[in-house]
């Protein structure tokens, strides 16, 4: 059966996405075959004559041929080419070509054919021109090296440049073709006089001279290069001679010309040994070349001399003197064999091409490629007589292309992943950062580097770093764990396990659980060891505790702990770590367990604090009953703080289970908070409060009942439940109040008379005003109580009113009482009766007179008449009245029947409208029938037609349209209806 450790290892390997890696570190991994690092291809180019010199920059090639013709070609567009004859400009022998990095500026150097006839010459040719320019100031020196301005991009000026001579002199100048200077006899923009403090050359001041390396000797400058540090005004300058490599570093202001002369100034009085790297050489030349990652600042260089290849790194920010450069320079021997015949002298490279990790060495008949790190030859190529002697190998600094030219042919080199095996070299040299950098694209190789680094760190007893590297690598999980266990390094093992845990997929539950439990066990063991030493308050304990808390707070760890609570809790209990047990429950949000733990230990206030610190309100309902029994006041304070977040109904089990004065006071306080502050209207809450009031506080009971009002539909408590409860607790005053709510007025007054007389009076006054019989009955009960119980005749007389007369209360008095006690009351009663009889007589007489007046008006109205003129018009349509049926009203308003109907119909209700429409249909139907249908019917003798017409008249002509009540009702009716408003507004516009 596979162990958990093996499963973890297998899953980890699958997670990394690599194939079978079980044998990593034991056997080499076979890689797919790849092309050679350097491959050569011949270009379709054949010069017209033998090539003697060649330069290439920015895909622009210039070469000189034996026939003294200069050939130029754009390598990006080979059709762009031209030839220039040098015989037209000079009879001197061409010694060298210098092309700037942009390919725009070309210098040609010539040696005199006879020392007596001509001086050396330096000529200039622009890419934009076919005419070669010269300067008189250049004639006195034989220039062997030029340091170009690598920041310059202009095609009309070179910017500040350095020129080295065959005698070790270094000049600064600038060539410009702008304005009239293109046609001027002097090309140089400035060539200033040497300051007085510079050394003299031949006891004469030399124009433009900035430094003298040769010191009056024939020491040629073979290479010049300078670079400006990005973002600063600092410059680094390299100058090579056959046996020395000079390094200058300093500041210069671009506004001051010459610019680079400012850098050389501080080296004028410095010992020579402090500015160069020396190499004994009998050769008359050396080759210096730089490699740059960003084409601005060099990262490394190779200096080829007789002794070998000096290879070094450059840091533009730190290397401010030659000593720091020397510390990073190593001497590499030339690749073997260097001899065609051991009897002959050794051959040395005539040109070099530097890449990041390799160097191509060009000989007259071959090219060798050597790795700068392993010193091994990785490429070798021979050139036969058909191609002629090899002229040069050139690396284009702008594009990185490498070209090789022989006398009769041109070749291009391609570099294929030269860094493919570099990681192995770095790994062997224990340069693991670089090894990881160059192996990062290959999982297998990268893993090998990690394993070797981890093993080395383990041997050096750097266990923490070793654990980190082992966690990144893919190797045997059990083997690594055992390595750390054998050396008793639990802290390192813990780091290894934690890093492994972070690399696992969340779906790998089993592996995550195993690692989490193991790491927790290691932390708990460490903490226990410190506690046993009595250092629980120490900084070391706090540091471990902080790390542990950070660990259990991780999302994947917290999820795992939640799924394995019992295991983790058992671990902590076994280590006696109560503090972390509590913290763990908080991290895993297992508050229920923590609260139970506190309650079990009778730490009720701690349990309440935990309850307050979490947001699961279900726990309040769960633990409130227990906490209410033990800590009622703090619990109620907590419940009040939570406010509306808690449902009071769900807390009822905790509230009803209380006993004792302290408990009911706190329960009442919480219930009052719910009702007053939270405006809770649940009947159960109100009923519970009433029950506590009825048992313990009758005063608050009455205040509560009064605050609820007298409307049964608006009160929040159960009246019948409260009445029964108050009756049981003999709360008579409350019962009286409740009887009144239930309209049991007689019971209310009867009970109130047992409490106090004023309460009975109040209840009698509260009885319905419209039920006079009930009021009378209630007041008679009060009067009877006063008479029978108190035998107070004077008090009883006070109840006499419109409802209760003296005769109503007389039966309550004793038969032995004399009439003298009621004399005044009886007299008053008789006077009131007499007044009422007289008032009734007056009302009857007024009614009789009104009836007689109405009868007279009706009689006179029957004989009333009026005259209608033929000229009278309808009030609505203003047409002659008598042309159509009409109505005439006593107010003298007259209307055509149809006009009156049209005006009145919108004002009629829906019922009358429907009835009127039905009557009109009946009348129309009766008008079309025969006369036999119109015979009289009923006792009135009216025909059916007359009846229908009379009913229509009753609807539309019961009152005048202008003078009747309908006009008064519609006085506030708008002239324009709402639905007509928009249309009429548009018409007016």
TrEMBL record:
CDD domains to which the protein is assigned, alphabetical: RING-H2_Pep3p-like
Compartments where found: Late endosome membrane
Keywords: Coiled coil, Membrane, Metal-binding, Zinc, Zinc-finger
Domain Pep3/Vps18 beta-propeller span(s) in chain numbering: 37-415
Protein's membrane topology: Peripheral membrane protein
InterPro entries given in the database record: CHCR, Clathrin_H-chain/VPS_repeat, Pep3/Vps18_beta-prop, Pep3/Vps18_RING_C
Keyword Zinc attributed: yes
GO molecular function: protein-macromolecule adaptor activity; zinc ion binding
GO cellular component: HOPS complex; late endosome membrane
PROSITE patterns xref list: CHCR
Family that this chain belongs to: Belongs to the VPS18 family.
Protein name: Vacuolar protein sorting-associated protein 18 homolog
Source species of the chain: Dendroctonus ponderosae
Lineage: Eukaryota, Metazoa, Ecdysozoa, Arthropoda, Hexapoda
